[in-house]
Amino acid sequence: MSAANELLRGSVWSFRYLDDDEPKPVVIVSNDGRNRSRFEWVHVVRITTRPKRPLPTIVELSDRDAPLTGRAMADELELVHKADLEDRRGMLSPPTMTAIDNALRDVLALH
User: Fold this and answer.
1) If pLDDT is split at 50, 70 and 90, which confidence band does 19 have?
2) H or E element: which one contains 77?
3) Which of 44, 66, 84, 105 is the most buried (most CB within 10 A)?
4) Do 52 and 75 touch, CB atoms closer than 8 A?
């Protein structure tokens, strides 16, 4: 796998939730040790462009994340097979990943 296609925390990929669905963007949130290991699964959070009411578990993407837009749905944390990630769409900015970390703390009650 080339460096541009490496499965890294903060990278956004296309993922099909069902075989006949259009691919949706997801951001990898598992740690890079796991992501680079032989373990075949990574943790992801879905990104949507649909409007959502403000919640502590929904993170708005910022201009720093362009061309990616929308919001990360931290309450939709999922384990997906690495082979099911299709095309790399980009990387989220460090401030957005910090906001996702905080949202995941809320989701998992890690306060």
Assistant:
1) confident
2) strand 71-81
3) 44
4) no
